[in-house]
Amino acid sequence: MCSAHATVRGLLGEIVARTGNGRDIIVDMEAGLEHLSRGTGKHVSLIVAVVEPYFRSLETGRRVKELAQELGVANVVGLANKVRDEDDRRAIGQFCAAHGLPLVGEIPYDPTLAEAERAGQPPIDSSPAGPAVTAIRALADTLVGEKGSH
User: pTM for this one?
Assistant: First the structure.
């Protein structure tokens, strides 16, 4: 196993062991499947698979669910990202429903995110009332409110 993945897996295990179930620990892992295939997410209780309205992204979300379940993570939900219109929403919704990946939220396409990136600023500072930041805040409230119910 790659030493970086082993280190992250060990660190997450240690954090979970020391903090117990009373705290939420959020880890933003790189896109793709490698971290799951190497067991990096072994100690998590919920995985949010971010999917975009493109076939490769949706397929990756499906594989994330499969690999997470192989690791023993039963709680896997989808998050629709970069949704531009009703066609995007429908495509993501239908794919996720067909593959048993419940959607927990939606982040709209937001050009202010690219502007913030170019300026080297966090979106929450650059455009705190922007549509994506607003949706992310609502998602955080949803996830904290539903903790343990997935």
Answer: 0.77
